[in-house]
Amino acid sequence: MSEAEKIHLFDSWLKESARIVISTHLHPDGDAVGSSCGLASYLKDRGRTVDVVFPDPVPDTLGFAMDPQIKGLTHSVRRDCEKLISEADLLISIDYNRPDRAAELEDAIRASKARKVLIDHHLNPDENFYDLIFSTIEISSSCEVLYGILKKLPDIDGNVPAIGASALKLLMLGMTTDTNNFANSTYPSTLQMASELLAAGVDRQEILSGLYNSYRENRFRFMGEYLSDKLTITPYGLAYAVITTEDLERYDIREGETEGFVNMPLGIAEVRMSIFLRQEGNLFRVSVRSKQGVSANRCATMYFNGGGHENASGGRLAIPQDVESAGAAREYIERSCSDFFSKDELWKSK
Ligand code: 5GP
Ligand code: MN
User: Fold this and answer.
1) pLDDT band, very low/low/confident/very high, at 166 (cuts 50, 70, 90)
2) Same-domain status, 47 and 77
3) Same domain? 117 vs 259
4) Ligand 2 centroid to 26 CA: how many Å?
5) Residue 328: which pLDDT band, with cuts at 50, 70 and 90?
6) Looking at the structure, do residues 7 and 112 belong to the same domain, yes or no?
7) Which residues is 308 bridged to in the sheet?
8) Do residues 206 and 230 share a domain?
9) Of 309, 307, 308, 3, nearest to 134 (Cα)?
10) What is the pLDDT of residue 221?
11) Distance in Å, CA 24 to ligand 2 centroid
12) Which pLDDT tens digit goes with each residue over 273-304?
């Protein structure tokens, strides 16, 4: 099917559907929130019945981006989400590539008889599961994929302000966070989109202030300990840190407040890849970032039950299934990554 045919089909499904539910991935980040809520805002403005379901709550650090009307469309209580999913006749999955990334909502999504649409930018979308797929890999964010679709819908037809101020702000949010404020994954199309959003009146200062100048002091105190005490750098250029529940409690660190930590060691010339583990009960959430030429995605897939993008991936380690105890995580990373970096066919990007 051509791109134009896909857009036409999507447009007719949006118009035919009585109940639209948008879902995104576990631990929603700026792109997940921006794309899901941006699409919801566009649809709400057109009188559609639409809800956004999150497998877990949006972190407080991103709350500023949602006005009360948008917030009213969002849900993260499991039972409420499952009911909405079961009643929907159109499900739109955004910023994730496979149903299992919706964590506890996976079963409800799989059980649904609704039409299923994917809008995403991760590697390896599940092509068997979705009825219609918009997936681009070489792009900044899901917000950019969505923007490309919205612009081509007949009622917008290139008239960007018609997408709506609230939706445009959310799209700018997602492209800003997923590119690390236009440091990574920034293509000509990305800057073009940013330029069009600014021209349409998006207040970028408000977004930057909400994202980067509104943290609690604790985050920076803890960042000090992370950089001075927690971070290990191996002779082969791996930087890694393991943060336990006790560490997080000591500094009262909340969801979203270690955002960006994993990127920092890449500023060191010798570092090729950075791994950040954050304990959550009996598992570790894993973030992997790499410099160009090194495959974070392969590392996350091989050793951390995850995946994502070539240079920015994530995953998880279960205690005690994957690592015997929280204390054993450092040795696990050392062992797997010295293997990883010992063979060119493993660490090198293809
Ligand atoms: P983060 O480190 O910011 O949590 O995630 C970085 C990237 O990896 C994101 O694009 C995210 O969607 C992906 N990712 C994070 N955790 C997982 C996971 O458990 N499985 C997979 N397949 N991807 C993940
Ligand atoms: Mn994304």
Assistant:
1) very high
2) yes
3) no
4) 12
5) very high
6) yes
7) 313
8) no
9) 3
10) 98
11) 10
12) 999 999 999 999 999 999 999 999 999 999 99
The residue out of 212, 227, 258 marking a domain boundary is 212
> 231 to each of 61, 133, 202, 319, how far by Cα in Å?
24, 40, 38, 21
What value does the mean pLDDT take over residues 85-102?
A: 98
φ, ψ at 299 (rounded to 5°): -60, -45
Same domain, yes or no: 44 and 168 = yes
- Pocket, ligand 1, Cβ cutoff 6 A: 25, 29, 101, 287, 306-309, 312-316
What pLDDT does 201 receive? 98
- Looking at residue 284, its pLDDT comes to 98
Which atom of ligand 1 sits closest to the CA of residue 97?
22
Confidence of residue 323 (pLDDT cuts 50, 70, 90): very high
Is 24 within 8 Å of 39 (Cβ atoms)? no
The rounded distance, in Å, linking the Cα atoms of 198 and 204 is 7
> How far apart, in whole angstroms, are the C-alpha atoms of residue 105 and residue 99?
8
Atom of ligand 1 nearest to the CA of 289: 2
| Containing structural domain, residue 331 | 217-347
If asked whether residues 14 and 128 sit together in one domain, one would say yes
- Residues 16-54: pLDDT tens digits? 999 999 999 999 999 999 999 999 999 999 999 999 999
Looking at the structure, tell me whether residues 145 and 77 fall in a common domain. Answer: yes
Q: Which atom of ligand 1 is nearest to the CA of 288?
A: 2
DSSP annotation string for 30-64: HHHHHHHHHHHHHHHHTT--EEEE-SSPPPGGGGG
Q: Quick check: pTM over 0.85?
A: yes
Banded model confidence at residue 205, pLDDT cuts 50, 70, 90: very high
CATH number where 302 lies: 3.10.310.30
Nearest ligand, measured from the Cα of 312: 1
Ligand 2 centroid, distance to 96 Cα (angstroms): 7
Instruction: Say how many Å lie between the CA of residue 290 and the centre of ligand 1.
Output: 13
Domains in the chain, number:
2
My answer on whether 165 and 266 are in the same domain is no
Task: Give the distance (Å) from ligand 2 centre to CA of residue 12.
Answer: 26
Name the pLDDT band for 64 (thresholds 50, 70, 90): very high
Q: Which residues surround ligand 2, an ion (CB under 5 A)?
A: 31, 95, 142, 178
Residue ending a domain, choose from 160, 195, 212: 212
CATH number of the domain residue 139 falls in: 3.90.1640.10
**Bridge partners of residue 268, in order along the sequence:** none
